[in-house]
Automatic annotation (TrEMBL):
InterPro entries (alphabetical): FAD-bd (IPR002938), FAD/NAD-bd_sf (IPR036188), RIFMO-like (IPR050641)
EC identifiers of the protein: 1.14.13.2
Protein name: p-hydroxybenzoate 3-monooxygenase
Keyword Mitochondrion found: no
Keywords: FAD, Flavoprotein, Oxidoreductase
NCBIfam families in UniProt: PRK08243.1
Pfam name, any one: FAD_binding_3
FAD-binding domain ranges (all copies): 2-341
One GO MF term attached to the UniProt entry: FAD binding
Coiled-coil positions: none
Amino acid sequence: MRTQVGIIGAGPAGLLLSHLLHRSGIDSVVLERRSRDYVEHRVRAGVLEQGSVDLLRRTGLGDRLDREGLRHEGIELRFGGTAHRIAMTELTGRAITVYGQQEVVKDLIAARTAVGGELRFEVEDVRLSGLDSTSPVIRFRHQGREEELHCDFVAGCDGSHGVSRDAVPAGVLTEYERQYPFAWLGVLAAAAPAASELIYAHHDRGFALHSMRSPEISRLYLQVAPDTDIADWPDDRIWSELRTRLETVPGWSLNTGPILEKSVTGMRSLVVEPMRWERLFLAGDAVHIVPPTGAKGMNLALADVALLGDAFAAWYDEGRDDLLTGYSDTALRRVWRVQHFSWWMTSLLHRLATDDPYEAKLQLSTLHYVTSSRAYATSLAENYVGLAEV
């Protein structure tokens, strides 16, 4: 096979890049090791920044998003028995939209298949070669057959455990990483959300988050130890702990219902530099991971491929290579801003150490300042809804 851009990974980044390239008249093939059903139903992030919403609308992907997405103009910080609203839209003129990653993926797959886009699911044994030449080759096995895909460029959008990053020679990439001493126990519950906006709760027993996926489905999280066994958390224990950490404001109570899914996710920060080597361009979780506290993972991946889409269009349409050459430096400015914000939100809201009362007092002091200073609240809001320029 022959194409212009070979894309590895059918998550939001890879699929959106393929969609953007199609709109610019550039051919691509997307290779994904999982099944279509799996990628359309895996529950991941659910908050879209204003810029992500604008991008999806601008590229013809806004119809279902506008019908089913939940627009939020603020978030609530809950600590010390009080609730404090950060009025994001009032402070910044922008908002967020709650719309699950799996829904974005469904919309993208539908858009690509509607125009005959080449998507290969359940691909095995992917191998990259010739990345330092003008004609890279992706070899893989699909439906029992060995195949080769020849292309001009390769986009690695296959996550932190994919093959793309490992195809870069040793010594080229530098990793910057931070592991956090806690994890999130997340549940999806058939319970109507008890609030119209997200609630971030700081509590002596650990952080909790009240979110939603629809008017009938709640998404809730608890800070737990990183070695937590999900078997030790039956439903009754989960609901009890959520009530303890969230029901700290008089008159507010949590809605409960059957738990549909539950899992434990470790938390870390990671940046890999540079995000390009020769004809290989890396995007999304393949080169950066953020803790989920700031709701930035999917948004950062979409921002990466928006840059890549423009860069490939400039190359093919105008013969310019400046955007491709500058892709890594440009993307990394946003990546590090988002890394800082995600680290800051995580450090502010989670219980960091059981034996450090000084740290706990600093957290409370910062929370009081954030919720009483318009300037500080505006900074939080600007980062949360997504900075237009970085």
